[in-house]
């Protein structure tokens, strides 16, 4: 008997395979196609012959934990106990899976805000819980009336992704204040905050749950070095949570992966001494602005992009076909791959939107925009 009977190949695999078959420029999957920082490569070369290739402690390499704690203090003014409140995970996705499967069981409900990242629901289903998926507003801001209507005594957790994939939306202060007023009525509901794009924010600052005193004691925060440092294949992320929640997650984690890739942990630990996260955000801002400028005279309507490395566009001026069909047509006929937004909704809401990833070389963005501008 399958725990995930309705799960098939992900849209990311489908679009990437189709792009490969047709030699299309792949702006679908969310990973950079440019080299990592030369300093990280040099540090990695120096480290590879050192005695660092055995298990690290289960919760993570101590030096890496210390530097994450320092980063969290500098960025969010939150002091974190590295022994009791932190956990290095095999990517943020494993951290999210661990958090959900630690606290969600049969009969529990988990609220997911659509459009949503595709790993949330399967994690809930494997845990035996029930996903309750509700839609954001048309501008992808949170709809608190819908959230309140979905909350019940069965609600165990709500998953919030900020900055938001796939839309690039960032919660503002009013959003947090409204959420705090609402969730105060439900003290037993845990918050799982997916903040993997926290260091890729543009015009508006990213407000983290780390900075919200009313919420932080009931929040598990997932972060990703893969996203922040554009090393997605290294699969290194981390969770930060109060001790009482972290102690339970460590029990699950130790039997899921025990410890994370030692070499990657050592390399990232060394790199954190030299990397500037502000420069990373600025680099992606330049890429966003370049991509937007290249498409400003096209027939695509560009939506605001507050953060992440994704640009959502509306193609209503080009076609009335549904977004999955149009996305495939875009690959086959025009040579550019994107992700249709409807796949991020439980009910396949189709508003004729596509998501492009602009974490690419300028040459790639120029070549893609040239094709997109003549459609």
TrEMBL record:
Residue intervals of the Aminotransferase class I/classII large domain: 25-372
InterPro entries: Aminotransferase_I/II_large (IPR004839), Kynurenine-oxoglutarate_AT (IPR051326), PyrdxlP-dep_Trfase (IPR015424), PyrdxlP-dep_Trfase_major (IPR015421), PyrdxlP-dep_Trfase_small (IPR015422)
Gene3D superfamilies assigned to the protein according to its UniProt record, in alphabetical order: Aspartate Aminotransferase, domain 1, Type I PLP-dependent aspartate aminotransferase-like (Major domain)
Any one Gene Ontology molecular-function term assigned to this protein's record: kynurenine-oxoglutarate transaminase activity
Protein's UniProt name: Methionine aminotransferase
Lineage: Bacteria, Pseudomonadati, Bacteroidota, Flavobacteriia, Flavobacteriales
Family of this protein: Belongs to the class-I pyridoxal-phosphate-dependent aminotransferase family.
Organism: Flavobacterium suncheonense GH29-5 = DSM 17707
Cofactor field: pyridoxal 5'-phosphate
Keyword Transferase: yes
Highest taxon of the lineage: Bacteria
One Pfam family in the UniProt entry: Aminotran_1_2
Cross-referenced PANTHER family: FI04487P (PTHR43807)
Record keywords, A-Z: Aminotransferase, Pyridoxal phosphate, Transferase
GO CC terms, sorted: cytoplasm
